[in-house]
Records
---
Amino acid sequence: MELWILLAFAAQFLYAVSILIDKHIVIRARAIGEPAAYAFFSVLFSAVVAGFAPFGFVSWPTWSLIGIALMNGMAFFTALFTLYSALKIARASDVAPAVGGISALTTIVLSALILHTDVEGFILPAFLLAIGTAIISHFHFSRSALLYTICAGVAFGSTVFLSKLVFERTDFIDAFFWMRMMGVLFVLSLLLLPQMRAKIFHSAKQSTRGAWALVMGNKVIAGAASILFSFAVSLGSVALVNALTGLQFVFLFIMSILFARYMPGMKQDSLTHGGWHTGVGIGLICVGLAALAYTFA
């Protein structure tokens, strides 16, 4: 099997771990669980990639690369903010599959319209994986939760697509560095907004050390997933890599059952009540994976 597919598998496992912790934080961590503040700090912590710079790995980018990387950072913050907003008012077992499916479909559409050849040979497995992921959600959404979920899916899909455009313009380390730095620059600019600044500073002051430790640990997990996922995108089909988000649900399904007794809210959020949505969704994911295996046979 191709290396980039294995990297995508590993990334989805780590993302599943991270999203369960995210769910716990936005419900239980009080101030820092405020979606806007949590999204701000999540992007800000990605500044650790600046550590690459002193070792001479990073070169100065073109203006077009900076522009795309900045759009990527804006989309990434929007994706995190809307995802955390959805997780705060809806079940992770509903939100995660729907966001994943919408994200995958968004990437497929953008890739077909702009990259053209990027989905060649992968359109059927990517489509099956995306649809299967989307319908796994039980659709137990309020109107606001549905809106946040759709926005998060479109924003994540746009982020992945923009990442592919950056990777096509430079090497992996430079691309990853500038996307993260432009994201940090964007969230720092949000401090110019008085209401956002007050919300972020309040969250920083009111949150406990334990909450910060949990956030930092989770960002390490999410960061590792991001690196693996980005590397997979740089090597292979962006549409197919993002369609493999369906695997995240499988991991989430298992972990939500295993850790239901240890994490508040997870028992009610368990995926064991999935009904026909779960059966049909998993069936389509399996068919999609089979189609993928046949493609590389």
---
Amino acid sequence: MWFNSLFIFFIGLLLSSCSGSINQPITFFEVQTPRPFGYVMGDEIKQRIIIDARDGLALQASSMPSIGEVNRWLNLNMINIEKTKTQQGFHYQIDLTYQIFYAPLAVKMLELPGFTLQFRQFGNTIEKKVPSWHFTAAPLRELAIRKDDGKEYMRPDTPAPFLDNTRQLNRLIVSLLSALILAAYLAWLYGLLTFLPKYQIFKSPLRKLAKLSADDLTASLNIMHKALNQLNGKPLFQHQLAGFYQRFPNYQPLHEKLTWFFNCSNQHFFSSASRANKDESEKIKALCQHCLQIERGKR
């Protein structure tokens, strides 16, 4: 009889313990941490908390540590909370990113402080302790440089590799070449390249005309005829002016002056009543000057 009573007592105790675990509001809790050694000043430490909670249990965000300075050498840079629905309730994944700014003189044990998470369920508060976590930090450099067999123990820092700027350099070269070609084209279009043969036809004749006296009309006419023939590519006569203007439309505004020039030349060379005139020599010089301006794109 007593054996049956003892058996029933143990069965009841077992059932009560099982029912208590089934009714636990937090069914799974785990704190995942990285390696506990090998950290230096400036390193980040990532900590992850995994929680499975039953339906109706809500994590209180106010119980999380605040982003920013934790103490004089530790900062909390980021908090990321992921909440997903499961069949039994909710699955929480909390990621914390710490950064240390401790510069130890030797290897030193440090601690990430613990904190308490709070959950609310039907007006009741349930707490879960996140324990503190210990790790070691090492100095960036030793206090003294040791030498072994006459050689330095510590080597200099490796120089940073250069960035590949080949693409940017090629783009710069192409841009400069394009700008140079465009500038040369505009200079040619506006007659700024006066050193080219195209812009040397009337330059020399104008200098020669400037040296002649007003009485030397024959030389002035020959010099101007030679310049016009050079521009035309063959001897130019008065009756060919229409075709000349089609090939060189920039000179058409000088039609009246060119007509006068050919009439003056015909009268001088083929008329017995011709005579030198100072005004005629000056007009020829002015005509050559205007041709030079058109040649250089200034008119």
---
Amino acid sequence: MSARRWRLAAAAAAAVVSTACGSCAGDGRIPVVIYSPHGRDQLTLLEHAFEAGRPDVDVRWLDMGSQEVLDRLRFERVNPQADVWFGGPTTIFDRGLRDSILAPYRPAWARRVDPRGVGPDDAYFPVYRTPAIIAFNSRLVPRSKAPHDWDDVLAPRWRDKVLIRDPVASGTMRAIWGLMILRGMRTPGDTAPGMRWLRRLDGQTRSYTLNPAILDQRLARGEGLVTLWDLPDILISRAKGMPFDYVFPRSGTVVIDDAIALVRGAPHPDAARAFIDYVGSAEAQLLAARKVYRLPARKGLSPDSVPDWVAEVERDMVVARVDWATLARETTGWMSYWDRHVRGSGATER
């Protein structure tokens, strides 16, 4: 993106941040600016819950894809505007760490999560576990006829019936793409089988949507019948009455450690740390599980307090083994190759 377009995008995004919390500017509260892919429902929920306990703090947020968060934080590195990066795979947080845009902070709940999801030198911590699923329009596709594994999506009956969130901007989709490439490797570094699979999927794909809202709308209207996406967004949309159902791929799915971090040079670090402490607290973890279908990363929550759907997910999903270190190291190159050489080329695979 050119410098001019970046300036225009930054100005537009700043306007969104300033209005995201309504008419709350200039009231003497401490602003905390959050960049996040978690969507309006979850961000509004946690904004209001946190502010109820901290009336001196004004939470402001900007909702965008994980890759867009990273790009924006890189652009603002010399003059940070955000206080907290909230949401996205730990693999993309690793890239932020290499770019020196994260500040170490060990939250109050640090010992309650799996240390394998914690960034070097406490650069980031996991707050949720986000499974990828195969979702479908349940009004038009009976559950018995839906694809039940990744390869099923390549069947002729789904040609031109698949909708995909644009993988370049989405951490979730990058993780799914990474799983497809890793599982196809016969020798280290051999991405050809995985790219062939993604090219075949491209041949099935009706369109790549710019954001999750458009994906929901098109899937609900039946413009596509099947998608690969994350569980929480599908459950939220279904709770709103959209005709969605899902399955966990039989062969195993990628389960993302969804992280949070303090931004290096955050304008309001103390309030930012308080927000991070809150997000991983038992109260906030249970609130997110009950209201926006987030699978808690925090261990030791009372079984009587955790909603039933959490136990069902833990029972039904098969977690694929993923080389996260390789994924973190190679994803950028893989996505660049896919974008230049695979996107739009799938018709040749039919």
